């Protein structure tokens, strides 16, 4: 007499049954590997996160708090509410500094973007030599302070080699850094000279992502270089160009060191850009509360400009399908 089994016999082949039994174990192994990867990622991110908190997040929050206080390093911060912001609104030097900064940004961004785009296109079309790219990048390897001092000596009205050459061709010497009309354009062009190579290489990298067969098809259709530039290069380069513009605008609004070593805000506040005025208020007159209020105002202005640029240029979208 046979005893019936309490469970039906398995209809899965032996190999499939073994695989089915091993699946939960595989999942547990995957979860363990994911946890290990997460810990490793957290380990690598930790130094950057620590630097972000210590050198960016905490100073920003501290500066926002100090903007509502009267603070001079010698006495505890005294809460004054919106007094610093009211003073800022009625401060003619603040508005003059903001105007000077905007003038600098317009000249710097306009000239730098056009020049960098031209250099990037020439690098792509004529040569892709690594040595030539290194030469283009060379001025960027020099610090702003050194670049400012070098151009200060070159453009000196009496002894500078630049004015010596101008005088030799029969033109009157130009006080590039000592005249209210010439000072800001000169500082802007000094920074264009230093940064244009780096900006050009960023745009060159964007050009490398454009498929070459698009240009070949356009040539077959009889398109000229100028037409290909406007119909192919510019539309497909737009996302990269938008990011580069956002970065350069933010950097331009924070110009300081070139002004500090060349004109020190003069002549007659003609180059007293906002960052230099903030520095003078904080470390020259020890008005850290008021300087913090102007810094917060600059933060708000840059945030608004960045959001506006991002939306207008559609930086998050690309025409490459």
From TrEMBL:
Q: List the keywords (alphabetical).
A: Cell membrane, Membrane, Sugar transport, Transmembrane, Transmembrane helix, Transport
Output the InterPro entries linked to this UniProt entry: ABC_transporter_permease, MetI-like, MetI-like_sf
Parts of the chain that traverse the membrane: 40-61, 104-123, 135-154, 236-256, 288-308
Could you tell me which Pfam families the record lists for this protein?
A: BPD_transp_1
The answer to whether keyword Membrane applies is yes
Where the record annotates domain ABC transmembrane type-1, the positions are 98-309
What family name appears in the similarity comment? Belongs to the binding-protein-dependent transport system permease family.
Name of the molecule in the record: Multiple sugar transport system permease protein
- Which taxonomic lineage does the organism of this UniProt entry have? Bacteria, Bacillati, Actinomycetota, Actinomycetes, Kitasatosporales
